[in-house]
Amino acid sequence: MARREGIQGLTDQEVVALARSGAETAYRELVRRYERPIFSLVYRMVRDRELAEDLSQETFIKALNALDSYRPEYKFSSWIFKIANNAAIDQLRRRELDTLSLEGSPHAATPDAVEATALQIGSRGESALDAVASIELGGEIEKAIAQLRPEYRSCILLRHVEGYAYEEIAQILDLPLGTVKTYIHRARHELRRALEHLRQ
Amino acid sequence: MTSPSGAHLAFDDFDVLLSGDAESPLHAPAEAHLSGCNHCRAELAAQSTLIARLESLPFFSPSLAFSDLVLQRVALPDPFALRSLATSRKRLLASRRALVTVSVVLCAVLGTMAASVIWTLANPDAVSSVGTWAGDTASQWLWVALRGGFANIVEQPWLGTAQAWFATPLRLALLSLGITLIYVGGLFALRRLMALPRAGAAHA
């Protein structure tokens, strides 16, 4: 237990170094730190829980199996988000998913499958009432995000949900800084337009 | 940086105001513009509301088995192998003398391999004749060994008795049956020996 608490206090780079030396707890710690952010990004990108889970798993497997190729001068979070975003974009290119369903996956064929693929709201320490409110408010905004182009969606999620700086987003998405700013500007504009009816 | 027309604030100006970065050189002019521009004030309020809503979006959780499923498919490095590799590397590179020895051995091995490849490529006829000579010699030795072996068996006194044993089909069939029974019995015994102990087996 003491060892686990010790690991939790380490930086990503230090945990990666431990993992490279063969410590399984370090691998678990990396998964623990990033499973929710990565899964949330991928889920909002592909809008299918089962698929998002598969893609998130692939992301971690790819990253953790390639830890030797990770360069510590870059942020680990940027590196793993890059892998996750590429996986999600590749998937979207292969398969068109155009409607977000808070009730369940559009590909679910049975009521059980619908329930199993329904969005499950996690908590950021909010009360039960706050959670209900965030479901109602989040429902509209999730639909609006779902209508954005995948490139805009990645940018807006990385900026305002994950809290990355423009430079980091440019690095993650392999885009020029100016393009990232343009995408975020357009995404905000489209989101406001999509949510306009709520203000009226 | 205000918009080219100078009429309203640009994206970067709004971003500075939204992030509250008072250190930015864009901040003061943007604030000044804002005090006299209703349009930009409304725009700032709308962007601020949108960003607050985006930032309040919850994180989603994957299934509880997520971490285990991932780690099942990750090839964890063996710490003992890594440690012994690191120790060997450390020993080999510990002193200048060790480093020189390793370099000389490495150069000798690589040099010999390279010289061998070059000589082979430069002398295809010699390689071919050596190959032919080696093949002929090997087949001669094999033939002599076979002849010697057969001659030895033929001269053995027990050969006549053994031939008499196999003379009738009945005896041959009995012998085959006996050998088969011994083989099957051996397999059965081996299977018993290899079987995992049942639950509840006494500990030593």
- The run of helices and strands of chain A is HHHHHHHHHHH
N-to-C span of chain B:
83 Å
How many helices of chain A in DSSP terms? Answer: 11
* Secondary structure: number of strands of chain A: 0
Helix content of chain A: over 70%
Strand content of chain B: under 5%
Indicate the radius of gyration of chain B in whole angstroms: 44 Å
> Which structural category fits the helices and strands of chain B?
mainly alpha
- Kindly report the greatest chain-chain contact and the residue count on each side: A-B, 46 and 30 residues
Round the mean pLDDT of chain A to the nearest integer and report it.
Answer: 82
Which strand-content bin applies to the residues of chain A?
under 5%
Contiguous low-pLDDT stretches of chain A (5 residues minimum) are: 97-101, 122-130
> Main sheet of chain A, how many strands, which sense, barrel?
none
**How many strands appear in the DSSP assignment of chain B?**
0
Approximate shape of chain A:
globular
Based on the structure, what is the oligomeric state of the protein chains? heterodimer
Low-confidence stretches of chain B: 1-5, 199-204
Write structural notes for this entry.
The complex is a heterodimer of chains A (200) and B (204). Chain A has 200 residues and is mostly helical. Chain A has helices at 2-8, 12-20, 24-46, 49-65, 76-94, 111-116, 128-146, 150-161, 166-173, 177-194, 196-199. Helices cover 71% and strands 0% of the residues of chain A. Chain B has 204 residues and is mainly alpha-helical. Chain B is 73% helix and 0% strand. Mean pLDDT of chain B is 85; it is low at 1-5 and 199-204. Chains A and B meet through helix 3, helix 4, helix 7, helix 8 and helix 10 of A and helix 3 and helix 4 of B.
Summary keywords:
heterodimer, A: 200 residues, mainly alpha, 11 helices, globular, B: 204 residues, 0% strand, elongated, disordered N terminus
Briefly characterize the structure.
Helix content of chain A is 71%, strand content 0%.
